[in-house]
Amino acid sequence: MSEIEVSPEELDIQKAFVQKAEKLFKSFRKYNPNKVLLEQIISKPHNFTIFEFYGSNILHDMADYFQAGITQQSETDSQNFMIFVKKLYMMLTDRQKHKFQAKFIVVWQKFKVDYSSFFEKVSKDFHKILTHNFDILMETEEEVQDSVLQEIRWAILLSPAATFVKMLLRAARAPHIIPSVLKICRMVSELYGQKLKMWHSQFEVDTPEPLLCAVFRRLIFEGRASFKTTEEWENVDLISIAFLEHELIDHENCTTFPPLMKSADLLDVILCQLCSPNRTPTKSIDIISRICNRILEPENLESPDLRFATSIRDQPVDGLFLTPTIIHKLLKLGEEFYGKSQNITENLYHSLKSIGFKMREKEVVFDEETYELILESDLQQAPWWLEYAMLTWFGPALGVRKRRLPTEIFQALSEDSDRDEEFEEIHTEEEIENSNSPAEVYFFKLFQLALVDVSAAAELFHRGCTLPRLHDVDLTELLERVMWEEDVKKLPVNPDERHKFGCLVADILRTVEHKGPRKFNDALIDALLSGSNSAEEETVVPASAVFPIETIKALEQPLPIVYKWPEHEYARNMMGMSLPLVKGRGFLQYTVGWLPFRRPINTVIGAPIRVKRVENPSKEQIDKLHAEYVQKLTKLFEDHKQKYGVAKETQILIK
């Protein structure tokens, strides 16, 4: 950062001010503050930034005399000292603020005792001022004034955990402030390298930990007690994404800020919350498991490099991923929510799959005691499809070569697929006797596995299906019956979520139809997965894109000379119309061009409208359906527009 250019007169003013400040510091050091100087400095406005040279002296005085200042003989004197120091802090350059923060944190934020509550007490109207600034932050749709951000920055410095938690609770209720929250977080980067102490409840850890870990843990704890809507939990997910992202600060040199949190630290917090006995509300488990799944995904470039525990006897130490315990907890949680929340079970099973993938990459193997314990206590009583998936993911780590299959699938495998070498049969022949056909049972079992791992189900299907006369049945009708009619109560999937089987269903139909006489029809898959309960029904789904700001701007009053440009004349003659003149962003963030601006476009999907199939609909029937669709679409827009920043008076126009 370059020095601020000041005139000789301004230097004289600053020099006199700094001399007064140093004299006042010394009076506080003697526990006899100079009331006259204090009144002059506090009450008189000083609208200048302190020159770097003088600022260096000031910040050292602020750090050196801080303890004396906050321990004055009267609370009023201590409060006046905090007002004095805060004013000096606001007058420092950003570089000098960071230097002061580094000194302050080393001295005051590394104790085992949290002094934040004391700092809040000696800061006059601390909570009132903080609440006021948070209110301004939430009310401002555009860029927030720097003075507001600096006030919050100062509050974080004095009371890091409590201020952060309050700010993130606000962000959960008003996600439009998340960019400003990130900006404030970058201003106090010195806090994140320390393990700080804060008060915890009985369900939380009782040891010093990185600040944002403590904050995120507290955010979840407070959210469970105070959040009223599912949107607030969805915004917690947005906050977690923002905390783990790099931030681009120099577009020419591609310089970035590192993520605010390490993914391994956040994963530790998330796993602790998943393993806690608190299961309410269910939406909290949904979001926490989603964050866990996203962090562990192999495709995630920020996914942590885990050091796996290979024995159930391994003790918890920093940086060690307690694999056996975590596998056990995730399986138990999946069992608890199976049939209750497909989102949660999917997140948990995908997390297990990612852990297995990472262990396979590192060729990690459990010791004999551990893999026997997992096989006997966790998988022995598990459904076949969960056991099969777990052995697919963790087979090498568990020392298992053969995976077990129910009779209906085992007998249907092609003998050319090394069936006996890779698989073992589970005898379940009694289920076939109560079913309409072996094919129906086969596909039901396959869909059971697909609920846990679609890729494993597809791989199993492509081992070769030797069911007799499979080409002679209406496969689409068979799959529909399995998914929608006979087994709708057995498969714990909501009808609106059946699209998750889409890839597998398409794969089955393509494979079978390719070998048979009929041609494959994509529309059959669409009808099958659309949610219809009958071949005589279709669905129409209203959807609205809600966004408050134009993604590209038209020039309302372009210069008249523009219309005389040769390029404009040529385009108008060729196309028979005058092209609109618009502006957007360039390839670099702060340039002008024709690319759309980076604006959020939120698409809201409404409930499906069920329609009876009519071969030759009348105009009255079409008009009736159109009117219902317009009515549902308008209501959808009105219900959601204010959530995404669209003005209350804005109306949707449908022509």
Automatic annotation (TrEMBL):
Please report the stretch or stretches of sequence annotated as the Edg1 TPR repeats region domain.
12-399
Q: Which domain of life is it from?
A: Eukaryota
- State the Pfam families in the record: DAGAT (PF03982), TPR_Edg1 (PF24293)
Q: What is the membrane topology listed in the Swiss-Prot or TrEMBL record?
A: Multi-pass membrane protein
One of the GO biological process terms: triglyceride biosynthetic process
Localization in the cell: Endoplasmic reticulum membrane
What UniProt keywords are attached to this protein's entry?
Acyltransferase, Endoplasmic reticulum, Lipid biosynthesis, Lipid metabolism, Membrane, Transferase, Transmembrane, Transmembrane helix
Name recorded for this polypeptide: Edg1 TPR repeats region domain-containing protein
Asked if the Swiss-Prot or TrEMBL record annotates the protein with the keyword Transmembrane helix, the reply is yes
Please give the GO cellular component terms listed in this UniProt entry.
endoplasmic reticulum membrane
A GO molecular function held by the record: diacylglycerol O-acyltransferase activity
